[in-house]
Amino acid sequence: MTIPNTIPITPELIAEHGLTPDEYDRFVGLIGREPSLTELGIVSAMWNEHCSYKSSKKWLKTLPTSGPTVIQGPGENAGVVDIGDGKAVVFKMESHNHPSYIEPYQGATTGVGGILRDVFTMGARPIAALNALRFGSPDHPRTRHLVSGVVAGVGGYGNSFGVPTVGGEVEFDPSYDGNCLVNAMAVGIADTDKIFYSKAEGVGMPIVYLGSKTGRDGVGGATMASAAFDDTIEEKRPTVQVGDPFSEKLLLEACLELMATGAVIAIQDMGAAGLTCSAVEMGAKGNLGVRLDLDHVPVREERMTAYEMMLSESQERMLMVLRPDMRAEAEAVFVKWGLDFAVVGETTDDLRFSVWHQGEEVANLPIKELGDEAPEYDRPWGEAVAPAALEPSAVPAVDDLGAAVLSLVGSPNQASRRWVWEQYDHLILGGTVTGPGGDSAVVRLEDGRKALALTVDVTPRYCAADPFEGGKQAVAEAWRNLSAVGAEPLAVTDNLNFGNPERPEIMGQFVGCIKGIGAACTALSFPVVSGNVSLYNATGDEAILPTPTIGGVGLIDDIDRRAGIAFGADGERVLLVGG
Amino acid sequence: MKSAVIVFPGSNRDRDVATALKVATGIDPVFVWHADTDLPDVDLVVLPGGFSYGDYLRSGAIAARAAIMPAVAAHHARGGYVLGICNGFQILTESGLLPGALMRNAGLRFVCRKVKLSIERTDTAFTRTYRKGQVISCPVAHHDGNYFADPETLDRIEGNGQVVFRYAEGTNPNGSVNDIAGIADETGRILGMMPHPENLIADHQGGRDGLGLFAGLADLQPA
Amino acid sequence: MRARVTVTLKEGVLDPQGKAIEGALKGLGFGGVNGARQGKIIDLELAESDPERARAEVSAMCEALLANTVIESYSIELV
Amino acid sequence: MRARVTVTLKEGVLDPQGKAIEGALKGLGFGGVNGARQGKIIDLELAESDPERARAEVSAMCEALLANTVIESYSIELV
Ligand SMILES: Nc1ncnc2c1ncn2[C@@H]1O[C@H](COP(=O)(O)OP(=O)(O)O)[C@@H](O)[C@H]1O
To answer: Could you give phi then psi for residue B186, rounded to 5 degrees?
Structure first.
């Protein structure tokens, strides 16, 4: 029995898919007919903010993204930078803000899992993870629950997967009461001549599904991540995805083993809107069509519809284009690691995205247009409203400086974060030279004298006061953190967390911060090689502080020539450098 | 000294311990897949740290039933040495090669920090490079390291002197009974411990206190 | 009075533990296992002796702490 | 046929999770909790349809894997 795919497409249905009437008309214009339900699902996934970057693309293009050592800038699963000796560092940061607010433990685990996958999809072995967390006021009723869940989730995934979590930030501010931020960064090392990309090549090549089975997890999740919270939050709950770090560890080992055989032509992880985005991206990048046969997709639930399979966000899955002559070898690797391996389609020369289920073609769409013709907005933006300047007289003088220092040091935003990072395995793999607690983490590269310096930073208060200066400052601080440990700063990944871009003053914050980041990165020759945008971090009219998190990576040539933050001995001179 | 490191699905400190063995003995260990049933000709078998099978059901439970485990027991019965670190310790208790059980940490959280270990015995191959009563630094990183044994078992292992390492100076991170951090079997040829000496073997890691354990194994004679 | 709370994952929610158990049982030769799901129980010793009030109290505990109602369901049994 | 295996810690075995739950419930204002212990359930989907044989099979699974009889006891319920 087949599952119906043709139901009338009503305005309500269109709205539920997060498409505006204009966007829907644009789509109908592209395909020249009314879409099927599966097609509507596919376009809603491709055209939502999260996948299409429709509000931010115009501005992201202004960032400096190249440099003499940049091997791959934005546009792939992660950025790649040459570090000499035939090695490259592969890194990216990504947010899981909305899912973490709904279910903090699972939201954080799946965020960490997603970013790790982005890195090892490129052929890199992850060697470090960082995270930047922001929560509401410590006395807000939800904060405690969110903090403990998110921290346990970040640790739970990274610890089991086996990557050291070496740094991060935790900050509290009432603007995050209704929208916490979970930004996770992963860093890996690959051989420069063995980097894997998502661009499919060759007609008639098998498309292989790898990893865990598909369930109904997160169907509608990509849409959720892009919609401001409202009263329907309760109804959206069942779309929570569960992370399985054990399967991801197996997937890592299996992928690296498989890549070493030379069987992989292209590979892409299934992130938000899994099968849809990954298949379309691989085909479109390679100027190829893709035909999928959903009957071969490994599923763990019964009677899944094509719509559900195309939108499922089940974790720990990959899509790959395989050299057909190496199929048996490839399959053996996955069987050994106990993971699913299924040929679910092939590349074609007709530039169509054709999806079959139970003998019926449930979608047939122009593959390039799904990405290239996605709406792009030049959203109106106004000058951000800066908070009023504080009159010095409005700040009462302190009588007891000692007590003031104590209360500063003990305040939620200054207090020790040991409670957090002791829940993270920051020592595994044996490379950690400086773990959490310093200016930058320092991680030694295998058997050598070289090390990477890693940091994440932003001061949202500054960005609220002056987006341009705040954006610049975040980059400058990341730069200083890296140089403070003796590293040569290499490149940046960013995670731009803002409120509702349809509000001109929020868009103004976004534009200002990007311009500031761009100016600082240009001045410092500190290119942005990857990143992520998270908008609609707002509840009603309450937006978060503008939070453009900057992840910085630097290189130390000789670990014996590094610096830490501790004073070494009595009687040392203390110098103040800078202006 | 020849050694083998068993790789279970979810092992993740297998490379760390291999590095430590290489540094201390000059010889790379062989990696052995959990689904194999035979061990190569080695003096030492290591069950590494990690989250074998995700630590689902109970930490180490599923790995303890892996196809390779009978060969590990046979290796010991023949006079061979076995070292289980962290998840490896959990696998050893789950398989009955060591007594007791490792329960959820008393604080219920994963703990990664340096602790102090006092060396309770130096007459084992694993601890012979240390002094009795010496206190060394060593990292821990685990969620289920709270050693438990019923009173009779505890009396027995204390009476036999099977406790090899104890958390010292108030650094017990997990609530283990009698501050137990590592125990040996009655022959002294099986050691299970929660801390990670393999992560403290080089200056860049902040010290070499853990290296002594592997150095002590360097000239193991085939039994 | 004692209460037993049983917490299980909602239908459709991925259960990595159950999956691992199923795989391990098959590996041990128990071929006749077609599925496994793991849940937990919490046994509570209550001061309350009135069944109705006890049940209400335990319900409140489940909502507040014992179950993660985003992905889990719970049931209560008084003994 | 389905079976539910209930695994609980033996009397006298330390239960850090139970203790933590008890503490947390008290912290949330549930004063009437005099003790809490945590256990787990494993729901199995069996090919076997004969109750007697099913029970024997599940018993074997418990001994082989599902319970650590050093610290845990188990009970089996067929449904
Ligand atoms: N703020 C940003 N700065 C630079 N590059 C970005 C930024 N946001 C996203 N990108 C790049 O855009 C591409 C698509 O982003 P990604 O988050 O991976 O999309 P998705 O998660 O939907 O697959 C990536 O290559 C990413 O590096």
So the answer is: -70, -25
Assess whether A145 carries a catalytic annotation.
no
Q: For chain C, how many residues are written?
A: 79
Q: Residue written as tokens 């070292």? A: B83
3-state SS, A210-275, equals EECCECCCCCCHHHHHCCCECHHHHCCHHHCCCCCHHHHHHHHHHHHHHHHHCCEEEEEECCCCHH
Give pLDDT, residue A222: 41
A324: which DSSP letter? G
Cα separations in angstroms, B57 against A486, B116, D40, D57: 45, 30, 9, 19
How many separate domains does chain C show?
1
Q: Which residue among D13, D14, D65 sits closest to B61, beta carbon to beta carbon?
A: D65
Q: In sequence order, what are the beta bridge partners of B113?
A: B140
What pLDDT is recorded for position B57?
93
Lowest mean pLDDT among A177-181, A229-233, A271-275, A326-330: A229-233
Q: What pTM, to 2 d.p., does this model score?
A: 0.93
Q: What is the pLDDT of residues B146-196, one digit of tens each?
A: 999 999 999 999 999 999 999 999 999 999 999 999 999 999 999 999 999
Between these two residues, A18 and A229, which has the higher pLDDT value?
A18
- Ligand 1, atom 25, lies closest to the CA of A75
- Distance of CA A315 from the midpoint of ligand 1 (Å): 19
Would the CB of A222 count as within 6 Å of ligand 1? no
Mean local confidence (pLDDT), A509-536: 97
Helix (H) or strand (E) holding A13: helix A11-16
Q: Is the CB of A49 under 6 A from ligand 1?
A: no
Give the per-residue pLDDT at A224.
45
CATH assignment at residue D36: 3.30.1280.10
A50 given a catalytic annotation: yes
> Which residues touch A409 (CB under 8 Å, ≥6 apart)?
A415
pLDDT score recorded for residue D27? 87
Structural domain including D8 reads 2-78
User: Within its chain, how far is the Cα of C63 from the centroid?
Assistant: 13
First to last CA, chain A: 74
pLDDT higher than threshold 90 for residue A297:
yes
Do chains A and D have 3 or more beta-carbon pairs under 8 angstroms?
A: no
Q: How far, CA to CA in Å, does A57 sit from each of A23, A129, C76? A: 17, 27, 52
